Amino acid sequence: MSLRLSGEPYSEYVKYMRIGKKEKEELKVLDEIIEENHVVTVGEIPLGLVQIPVNQIAGTKNTGRGVSFSKSFYPILSEKSEFAQKWMSLYRAHIEEGIREPIKAYEFMNKFYVEEGNKRVSVLKCVGAVSIPGTVTRILPARTGEKENRIYYEFVDFYRLSELNDLCFSEEGSYAKLQRLVGKRPDEKWSDDDRMNFHSLHLRFKTLYEEKGKVNPGGTVDDALLTFLNVYDYSELMNLSVSELKEKIQKSREELKLREGSVPELSMSPEEKVGKKINILAHLLPISASALKIAFIHEKTAETSAWTYAHELGRLHLQKTFADEIHTSCYDGATEENISQLIEQSIADGNNLIFTTSPPLLKGSLKSAIEHPEVKILNCSLNTSHKYIRTYYARMYEAKFLMGAIAGAMTENDKIGYLADYPIYGMTANINAFALGAKMVNPRAKIYLEWTTLKGHDPFETFRSHEITYISGQDMITPKLASRHFGLYWDGGDYPVNLAMPVWHWGKFYEQMIRKLMKGSWKDDEISDETRGLNYWWGMSAGAIEVICSKHLPIGTARLIDLLKNTISSGGFNPFAGVLYSQEGVVQMDMDRAFSPEEIVTMDWLAENVIGYIPAMEALVDQAKPVVSTQGLGGKQGLGGKA
Fold first, then answer.
1. pLDDT at 638
2. What structural domains and CATH numbers belong to the chain?
3. pTM across the whole model
């Protein structure tokens, strides 16, 4: 018996048919996509029965299957057609009993193309179904160098562990980052409970995030979720009610405007922008306050950490320079777990400006900044793009170039050792600048790169086996562990001889930062691009970086270093200019071009005269992982990384 053209199925069909006819484009056909784009495929993988996200169904597998539908699977044939009657019968069956029979589809580049069950897809889409059961076969494209292809293969690796197919990211490294942020090891598989819990959070976030429209049209909802998980711990979010989650999303709206992986805008100099200047104290201080109160929050103490010692010298310089105008205090022992509590304590103590002095403290700093917009919080890290806090660092690669030139001039066998600690943003530029400096004065110089944070590895054994005596070691002295093995030194005798030392002048850095704030430049520095944050990245020109040379240097070498130092400080020389080669080949052939600051920050290759590699996360000791997880280059190495 034929279905009467009246009642709910009929009116629903007509409604969706009208929507479909307004869509100008036709359904995409997978066979045509592959043929027209000359896609090379390398095999098919049966995935079995899976839940297919409706919003990822992009078309049909074969030509001719989609002539009855618009590009979004709305029906377009006349309500009097045989097709319409079948559609309405299926609609009625779904309303009365529900559609349970799986469709058959192919997955290609994280999109699904229907081979059997087009009308089922159309009906379920029209009634608002989130997913559809289907028997799916994955068609694998050949690997290419294109970004979309690389991201897809990251998804394939992630799917092998999680069996989640409803996540779409726009930046490389995102799937590996999600794996880490939900508390999974790079190679750890998800359980059924893991998938169920994540689906719950994913759906709630997506619904709440899209209530007022996407704040970042250039990215995906999942890009925003990843940014959100960079602020709040996954376990914390799982226990929130819908209203609590909604409140946190609303507070984080500015942060969610950022594209995951976006490069921040870099402030390269403390020079003031032209404009009206106001006294920042009027904005940071209550009327009754007599001094700006500044807190410095450190991971370790000045006695046990060279890094903290350098920042404490900076704090003391700041206190001495501004005397009664400011008051500073320090809080030691910060961790990823307690940083939020320490910031809360520092705010309760009346601090208006807070510096957290190491990268692992970034996440907690950001979380506190969202909760306390009245307080200015800055974190010492590089290449971190956030709206609620600003970050700062110093251009150490300028000093490393000078030290490389010294090492290249001094080495007797063309071999130089380089000790690095963390494979993070900025470190690769330091290594390459050192290598380029050595090569400039000695074309035969080879840099033997060793990492102090590798598991079960003695870098000095490598140096000894290669008869390397000139070594670039740690930058700073740890007071409690005084040693002469710092800076650039010669280690070929009874005791090391220090030749040059890079200096982080945090005192000058902080002094100029406070002077900027007092002149009102916090507002002047705000950028209009909603997808980027702001990093202060100052170098020799600002006095933030210096190289101290030993009397042991030959006069000619010392003069050369002075000349190079002055040229770099004046902006007349960029170590990363002209023809550049990596271990893999040519990086840049233009003699007249210099790398931009953004290219230097995100550098992930090693110069051709470097012997060594960038280690993956799993090769590092546990205490190094918090820094690398926040600032590391490993995101581009996929879920497993490379050694």
1. 34
2. 1-142 (3.90.1530.10), 267-392+508-540 (3.40.50.2300)
3. 0.79
pLDDT at 230: 86
415-420 and 470-472 as β-strands: parallel, antiparallel, unpaired?
parallel
Token duo for residue 510: 């902080």
> What CA–CA distance (Å, rounded) separates 84 from 17?
9
| Three-state DSSP state, 365 | helix
SS3 410: helix
DSSP H or E run through 388: none
- Here the tokens at position 378 are 């800055």
Rounded to 5 degrees, φ, ψ at 394 are -125, 150
Whole-angstrom Cα distance, residue 108 to residue 142? 12
Q: What is the CA radius of gyration of the chain?
A: 29
- Burial class of residue 272, CB neighbours in 10 A (0-12, 13-18, 19+): middle
End-to-end CA distance of the chain: 68
Beta strand segments in 423-574, E: 446-451, 470-472, 488-490, 497-504, 534-538, 545-549
Sign of CA dihedral 509, 512, 517, 523: negative
Q: What is the pLDDT of residue 274?
A: 39
Handedness of CA 558, 563, 569, 572 (dihedral sign): negative
Separation CA 590–CA 606 (nearest Å): 19
Q: Give the model's pLDDT for residue 66.
A: 67
Q: Give the DSSP per-residue string, 27-58.
A: PEEHHHHHHHTTPPEEEEEEEEEEEEEGGGEE
Query: 250: which residues sit within 8 A by CB, 6+ positions away?
Result: none
The amino acid that residue 549 corresponds to is: C
pLDDT along the chain (643 residues), means of 10: 56 93 88 93 95 94 82 92 94 89 96 95 92 96 93 96 93 91 93 95 92 67 90 92 92 76 80 48 47 93 92 96 92 94 96 94 93 93 85 95 97 97 93 97 97 93 96 82 80 90 94 86 71 87 93 92 93 93 93 92 94 92 83 50 36
Single-letter code of the amino acid located at 209: Y
Which helix (DSSP H) or strand (DSSP E) does residue 114 occupy?
strand 111-116
C-alpha 135/C-alpha 104 separation (Å) is 5
d(CA 617, CA 639): 10
Q: Residue 40, Cβ neighbours under 10 Å: how many? A: 11
Size (the chain), residues? 643
**How many Cα neighbours within 13 Å face the side chain of 281?**
14
Task: Quote the CA–CA distance of 292 and 508 in Å, as a whole number.
Answer: 18
Task: Centre a 10 Å sphere on the Cβ of residue 239 and count the other Cβ atoms it contains.
Answer: 8
Q: Kindly state the DSSP code that residue 589 receives in the 8-state scheme.
A: -
243, HSE (Cβ side, Cα atoms, 13 Å): 0
- Determine the pLDDT at residue 635: 43
Q: Name beta bridge partners: 116.
A: 104
Q: Are 302 and 312 in contact (CB under 8 A)?
A: yes
Do residues 359 and 630 make contact, with C-beta atoms less than 8 angstroms apart? yes
Distance (Å) of CA 253 to CA 7, 241, 373: 44, 18, 13
**What letter represents residue 601's amino acid?**
V
